[in-house]
Specification:
By secondary structure, this protein is an alpha+beta fold. About 40% of the residues lie in helices and about 15% in strands. It is built from three helices and four strands. The chain has helices spanning about 5, 15-35, 60-75, and strands at about 40-45, 45-50, 90-95, 100. Strand 1 (about 40-45) and strand 2 form a beta hairpin. The protein starts with a helix and ends in a 10-residue tail after the last strand.
Length: about 110
């Protein structure tokens, strides 16, 4: 065999392969979230932000969110997990990767 025949290259770096894999899981998570009734506002490798129409309370929204997380985490590789980090009444996306969340406590700015 020739030297070229001994190795197979994908012409992609390992980082590209990992990024491609992550994008696949992000897209799968977005589709599943939409199937659960979430409207995805923004998603990347660092987070996913979504809203849900028709919920009557914060508690109902959180219950649906945790149910989605439990089901989605069963479908992800064992070393990958979605975590819930917070509930925000409003948010303002300034630019990609620079996110400003406005928290309105005690309904001061409803």
């Amino acid at each position: 065999k020739t030297e070229a025949g001994k190795k197979m290259h994908t012409a992609r770096s390992r980082n590209d392969e990992v990024a491609t894999c992550l994008r696949m899981f992000i897209q799968r998570t977005i589709k599943e979230g939409e199937r659960y009734g979430f409207k995805i506002i923004y998603a990347d490798t660092d987070g996913l932000y979504a809203t849900m129409e028709g919920v009557k309370s914060k508690e109902e929204l959180l219950e649906k969110t945790y149910k989605f997380l439990r089901e989605m985490n069963k479908k992800l590789p064992k070393d990958m997990e979605l975590e819930f980090e917070g509930y925000y009444k409003r948010g303002l996306f300034v630019t990609k990767k620079k996110l400003l969340l406005l928290l309105f406590l005690n309904n001061q700015c409803s």
